[in-house]
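Field guide to reading this record: the first block holds the primary sequence, the second block holds the structure written as discrete tokens, and the final block holds curator observations. Each block starts with its own label. This record concerns LysR family transcriptional regulator, catalogued under organism Pollutimonas harenae.

BLOCK 1 — SEQUENCE
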Amino acid sequence: MKTAINNRISQMRIKHLTLLERLMEYRSLRKAAESLRISEPSASQLVRDIEAMFGMTLFDRGRRGMTPNLKAEALLKRARVILREAQGMENDLTSLSEGQASSFYLGALPRCMQGLVPNTLAHLYRNEFNIRVHILEGSSTVLLSALDRGELDLAITRLLDDHGNVLADTRFDTQVLYEEGMSIICGNDHELAKAKGVRLSELKGYSWVLPSSGSVTRKLIETEFLNAGLSPPKPLVECAISASQLNMVRTGHFIGICPSSIAAQWQQQKLIRVVQVALKVPLPPIVAAWHLTKSDDPLIATIKGALLYNADTIAPKRKHRSRSS
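BLOCK 2 — STRUCTURE
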């Protein structure tokens, strides 16, 4: 059995995987062949080669083109990782030949760009780190999807129930960086700024600015109100980026919500005030996630170590947890 698998791998070429990816995108052999600048008969032969290697049909042929089946979709997930790694190899060799540093692709939530990521990179570069880092900012959905496609080396994101199938997959490993709660915030001149012992029910009548509907934080604040037997607040303004919410709250008209570490940082800078109301629903932890095939990569280990070191300045009392530990 092992010999048969090795034979399949030895027969496979990058062109096979590239065609598989293009077929998944175009659902048309003709369009896929044109995108690769090869003839349609040549593309058809490559498809037959792939199916012969694995001894199974990967596409359903019909008048409307070639529709990938579940086996093709499963194979494509692996193929994308291989293709991205091959491209990364080429980029690194090109950079080295031109006297430039190799590259690392890092994904991060916008809120992690306010402290964790800048501090981590500053720490690394002060210690003779010579890798060029490319950063993709985005929501957990965007980051996990990019990681799944092999477009990121590591993602700093949240563990989400909606994405459990991605992070629970044996292809990925994760490390909890820190855990924290949520805080409700207001402007320094807001009437809630100096109030003590505020009840959740008292917040219903105020003007809210909240993250977009369906976002993690929005779902959690809605859950907080529902658990208390209250209808969730309906925001007058929706902002996806934490800094935008901060500017809205600073006007003194709105109240909003953000992770406790960011709220504490903003309050220390005298930009806002934290409303003294107890919240029970915690935020999902911030984690580092990477492809399992890169678990032995020394660069992953270096960056993960730096992230853990700097995460201690955000939540020093948390317990690190790794699925591999």
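BLOCK 3 — OBSERVATIONS
Residues 33 and 40 are 6 Å apart (CA to CA).
Residues 70-97 form the longest helix (28 residues).
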